[in-house]
Amino acid sequence: MEFIFLVLYKLVEYYSYALIIYILMSWFPNARETGIGKFLATICEPYLEPFRKIVPSIGMIDISPIVAFLVLGMARTGIWQLSMWF
Predict the structure, then answer these.
(1) Are 56 and 66 in contact (CB under 8 A)?
(2) Tens digits of residue pLDDT in 5-29
(3) Rg of the Cα trace of the chain?
(4) Roughly how many angstroms between the first and final C-alpha of the chain, as a whole number?
(5) Cβ(51)–Cβ(70) below 8 Å
(6) pLDDT given for residue 13 in this prediction
(7) Would the keyword Membrane be found if you checked this record's keyword annotation (predicted)?
(8) Contact by Cβ (8 Å): 52, 62
(9) 23 near 69, Cβ under 8 Å?
(10) What is the pTM of this model?
């Protein structure tokens, strides 16, 4: 059971890294049109889209990824706490 929680924890951690890379790619022109950018878009956009609908932008700045990272952090903490019980 501990192995399952460890795998889930690591998957959420790696997904956080993928989100960071995907968000940083928006700072560089045409970076999201590369193969890696398209791959990251297919795995990151479905997660970010609900947050974009809920959290309004501040001018040209999209702050929804901050909320998405907070939710991922809570998920990691929850997985860690559950692993301590089992």
Answers:
(1) no
(2) 999 999 999 999 999 999 999 999 9
(3) 15
(4) 7
(5) no
(6) 95
(7) yes
(8) yes
(9) no
(10) 0.88
CA–CA gap between residue 58 and residue 17 (Å, rounded) = 24
CA distance linking residue 81 with residue 48, whole number of Å: 25
Contact call for residues 83 and 5 (beta carbons, < 8 A): yes
Tell me if 64 sits within 8 A of 52, measured CB to CB. Answer: yes
Domain positions in the chain:
8-84
Q: Give me the DSSP letters along the chain.
A: -HHHHHHHHHHHHHHHHHHHHHHHHTTSTTGGGSHHHHHHHHHHHHHHHHHHHHSPPBTTB--HHHHHHHHHHHHHHHHHHHHHH-
Structure tokens of 74? 């809570």
Of the pLDDT bands very low, low, confident and very high (cuts 50, 70, 90), residue 2 is confident
Answer yes or no: are the C-beta atoms of 47 and 21 closer than 8 Å: no
- The mean pLDDT value for 68-81 works out to 95
Amino acid, single-letter form, for residue 71: V
